[in-house]
Amino acid sequence: MNMMSKPRRLTADRITLAHGGGGKAMRDLIEDVFTSVFKPAGMEDQARLTSEALREEGAQLAFTTDGFVVDPIEFPGGDIGKIAVCGTVNDLAVGGARPLCLSAAFIIEEGTDVALLRRIAASMQQAADEAGVAIVTGDTKVVGKGSGDKVFVTTSGVGVIPPGRALSADRVRPGDVAIVNGVLGDHGAAILAARGDMALSTDIQSDCQSLNGLMEAVIAAAPNLRAARDATRGGLASALNEIADAAGVGVELDETTVPLRPEVNGVCEILGLDPLYLANEGTLVLFVPQHEAEAALAAMKAHPTGEGSVAIGRAVETRPGTVVMKTLFGGSRIVDMLVGEQLPRIC
What is the pLDDT of residue 49? Predict the structure, then answer.
């Protein structure tokens, strides 16, 4: 971000093209709406990072980036700012990294309410505080009316993988237990209801939350944790298929153990959706060796973001690369990768 040392006060109620022009109006926007909230340590065009964790022999730098275009921008349980922080923190955490800092870039449509931007910035800072990360640099651009949809956010994250950690999908072995940290599909159902297209009345809230604290607790309790994925777009089904394919194993699920809210099930039944493909923003699936499953579950249930944790299946030798669910009726069905898009602009 281009930053000045003295804060200015933004008086406009809506964004104009001048706020992306590089002059005083742009500096007013950046300083008043963003840097006054994020409080970056430096005022240069780049963040300068130091961390004792990086000096450990064998430590690795983890880096990820993600764009967010969710519609609606504000929804029950979160907003585009909260998702932007939590989503990037989680992408680092499920790889075993300890998130350190984030960047944030904003594409803002002309005519957007400044009050909305203030709410997004405040939400981002709150989520960053809860995750223990800092938003250290960023950028803003303004596009003409009709060229965007209020605001899009791109966040990148840097973290450190401590020596000795090596989480990856190809490490999963037959017999490993699959565990999720709570109910599935809340985010997708909440977004669908918030759009109002289906006239659905529900109190479902997004599960949007950061999972780095939960991952640290699991790793401490189950040091041989194989792999983890956050079940975002494509839901649990896509995450499990990615793992099964990478590891060359089959995955067997037990439908009686898959945690779903009755309200989410109801929404899916009405609309003909499969809840296994609904997006989540605070739910992960991980695989641990069978002898560590009990310890992993106990650690997860003791953490605020894992109180609803449950084992839902295991990796098997048969049908490598395939996910199969044992149904409530005693049969089985293949749970394939999502084809197409159940719900666009979900994150």
Answer: 84
